[in-house]
Amino acid sequence: MPTALIVLAAGQGSRMRSDRPKVLHAVAHAPLLAHALAAGAALEPERTVIVAGHGGDAVEAAARHMGENLVVVRQDSQDGTAHAVAQARSALAGFEGDAIVLYGDTPFIRPETLAAMQSARRDGADVVVLGFEAAEPGRYGRLVANGDRLERIVEAKDATEAELAIGLCNSGVVAADAGLLFDLIDQVGNDNAAGEYYLTDIVGLARAARLSARVVTCDEAETMGVNTRADLAAAEAAFQARARAEAMENGATLTAPETVQFAHDTHLGRDVVVEPHVVFGPGVTVESGATIRAFSHLEGCHVSDGCIIGPYARLRPGAELDRAVRVGNFVEVKAAQVHEGAKINHLSYVGDAEVGPRANIGAGTITCNYDGVFKHRTEIGAEAFIGSNTALVAPVRVGVGAMTGSGSVVTTDVPDGDLALGRAKQVNKDGLGARLMAKLRAAKTKKKGG
Ligand code: UD1
Ligand code: CA
To answer: How far is the C-alpha of 31 from the C-alpha of 12, rounded, in Å?
Structure first.
């Protein structure tokens, strides 16, 4: 059965107090909307319709990077969830199959939960609603149900005392045949406390038409929605807790898991060790057996097996580290291929570069990659030895097995096997050190006396 996703994302999110539409606020470096789409992606939707409103242009621009077969439609006035779903009708013209409604501000619905809703549909339920037992039902819609047979949904604003006592609440996620969904929505009115077109009314309408409605339940944690900055922080915490648990389940050692921050797409292999206070930005893969030592920051990089990174290392986008590379404290690597067994152990910047296998980059080495306008590349050959405090002024190449003397400013290529000395020649002045010191001490004594 083909599936279409309808993702509601038109609300203002005024309680965020933000100039940015709520669904574009990020958890683990991905917008809430991307999390909602990722959950829905498990259903392999044939089409996805995002209903945008507030900040619609920004939502549309961001959504372009979030997948294929994806359309953004506009809801010009936010007249309720049924009205929002109705905006998806023309985008789904000709579509035959199930429609599943998700909220763009609800990032954690699990694929298994959506699959359970699909299977309730296959078992013959005409409308399937995702519910949960709320710790504090508050302003959630209440599910009036008999076991898993749903009769209607009543919004808190419109509920009686007896209905408010119901703990089974509406998550907002709904599945139904697309044609039926739009037929039911056509019948929804706005004669209620909010004066809005409630999507929740389709359940009562379906039952009145002698159709069946089922509730599938999930854990409350899955339905966590984001309305405030505090909710956003809580969602981040929930994501991080889950990511840490998953990393450990998959065979990584986290010595202080609560201090490690993951991104939505961090990938750690087996037997990776992550020490305390490591931050993963987006786009990081760490392969088996690598160690990321304390206080390192990684983003957009690939770390191969057996590497040791940090403590206090920074790997920026395009850092590609081959097997058994070492990157030590206060080293920054950006857009650089570092080949097997190379070492950059202390206080260096290596950017727009290629570092050959087993090359040794001395403390304080800088690739001077930027001339103020353009970026230039540095190439360092296999087994080259870069002396401490070398400035490699790119574009420049240091050959295979070549060396640079410490303190050199290397501005021209160094042939294979050569030693480059690019620094002032040292001169020693006979006895001058001692004489100078004596003079200074005498000056100090005179000053104190006078
Ligand atoms: C809705 C449900 C309620 C449920 C709760 C779960 C209705 C009538 N009520 O209430 O039963 O318990 O969600 O969180 O459906 N949106 C639009 N356009 C609109 C209105 C809303 O796109 O015109 C979007 C919002 O951006 C949001 C979602 O739909 O992502 C839910 O809207 P919201 O106003 O938060 O609904 P609630 O009142 O919380
Ligand atoms: Ca809400």
So the answer is: 15
